[in-house]
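Exercise: predict the fold of this chain.
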Amino acid sequence: MVIKKKKIGLIIGSGELATYCMEQLVLLGYETTIVRLPCSKVKIKKNQDHIPLKYEEINEAFFLLKQRQINEIALIGYMERPDIDSSKVNYRSQILLSKVFSILNKGDGEIFSAIKQMFVDQNFTLVKVQDLLPELILDSGIYGSPIGKKVLKEIKEGVKIFLNYARLDIGQSLVFQNGHCLGLETITGTDEMIRAIINFRERNNKRSKEILSGGILIKGSKPDQVLDIDTPVIGPDTIKLAKNAKLNGLIIESDKVIVVNKDSIIDTLQSNNMFLASVKFFGYRL
């Protein structure tokens, strides 16, 4: 008996997560069709069924997905705000994108909600990639090096600040140290925030050691974040940057942050005396 493979469409942005998920879902036996966003820098294999997406002709991508009898869609990887040439948008795409056009100057939450509704209106089911690949989510607990009592107290204060920052809908992470915020993620992303800290510490290498090392990266979700589309992610590159920034460790929100290649991450943490704690941010306890 021939076992029919389950079909799924993967709308791909950039980053380690996109590459990892494409490979793992094929190994699990999925028949995947890749829809590559204009901002994506991920390489697609020659034999991989894929659709290069143009926002101005998004109706064509939807047509091709339906033609392939694909009902489930997962959006994966870093996605930049769409740069759409309104003069080139065809009529059918204009109808599809009308709600998105009207809120492009709003926060990410509203934009992603409109994008999600656009897929629902086209009778697609959005699937969270972490539901397809459960290993992407860390159970609550401490990984890497142990955490002392002083750091535990600092984590508690940092999470409080993060929860207030998250309400602003401008980013998903910050770096906290001794009651001070060293960096806030904005539209440029977590890695760029960490690079700014590295540059600051390199330029001020004659200042006190307290300023030149230490700190905790805190990453989690924003209120009402559309996790079907916009899930916070950390990967090996983020951990390497955190090490270069001389941070002590990371705190992530349990069940809300994807961890790419967790075995590699934990090895890096242990070898550099760093920690990673996965905790529930609301009703915080560790």
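Check your answer against the key: Residues 222 and 280 are 13 Å apart (CA to CA).
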